[in-house]
Amino acid sequence: MTIFDLVIIGAGPYGLAAAAHLRAIKGLEVRVFGQPMSFWDQNMPAGMFLRSNWTATQIADPDSALTLEAYQAAHGAKFALPVPIEHFVGYGLWYQREAVPDLDRRNVTHLEAHPKGFRLTLADGDAVLSRRVVIAAGIGAFAWRPPDFRSLPAFLTSHSSEHRDFRKFAGKRVLIVGGGQSALESGALLHEEGAGVEIVARSPRIHWLGGWASKTLHHRLGTFTRNLLYAPTDVGPAVLSQLLARPHLLRQLPRGLQDKLRKRAVRPAGARWLVDRLNHTPIKLGRSVVEVTPAAEQVKVKLDDHSERTVDHILLATGYRVDLSKYDFLAPGLVSLIDRFNGYPRLKEGLETSVPGLHILGAPAAWSFGPLMQFVSGARYASRALVRSIAGNSPRPAKNR
Question: What top-level class would CATH report for the domain 3-142+322-390?
């Protein structure tokens, strides 16, 4: 059976960035499994734009050569902020061809501990061994569906991550639950496809990003001062942005303070450029859905203000909740070995779990390394931390319980 030094599960921004960085370690044999950019390509709606700034949309590489500018030059593509989803996917696929040309597109269906490290079963039944494994499997498995909606059939309710194309909702009445970017942008896209849309959010107000005050502040600040207040990672408000860009410092703070800063940095918010596109979309703020009842081919919805409406579909833009056990490729015996808190793995330096040689990147790392790990821009820190940790280290095999 083939045995590798290190296997990466996942070929999104984190998996690709990690591979590009780890291959700088001489003698380390790295193999990446997965469909490149699959979540961004298949689970984000056509017409979507990325909310992040230009620097935060780059996928990190050790030489800073695989940039959006380089992609544009190579393909003759022309786009600016906000970056359209199709161009980001195209950029990611180009990055993969340049940095990880030997990507194995087979998915990993089972990962378990093995005396030599880890045993991975692939979608076609083949199996390989690896001394180390880096999980960069994204957030698709963590889509959150509030309990009140789980009894409804799939044709009446869905999560926002389940749709690539909203055209099928033309002429339908759609109620969106949520008040963040996903809810607001889905509302705009559905309206533009001819759906009748209403948005319901528990928050009493919408937090808009990039407003007049923000633009004025950025314009008045000199480059030096602006760079002093805001990190290029584009996560968090002024000053806090710099701390969040340095997870090694954030980790030194008391746990309670870390949690407060994280909530402040990732509260639901929408990009200001959506405002005009939502002029004709009713938004009910400070309200919650308290009852849903199927009615033939529709669903009757009651809010906590006692108002009712009947719609054709409920779209849940309710975000994601990390729960490591939701990764269906993880063997239960291996999951039980991983020290966790509220579904998140407790990670050590190098984003390593309590199982030696098993590392986890992306959103699952947010409890240990802060909200930066929930964004593409966090891949640079994660990749460099991996390199520092793995170079010269040899993990002990884990044992299943």
Answer: alpha beta
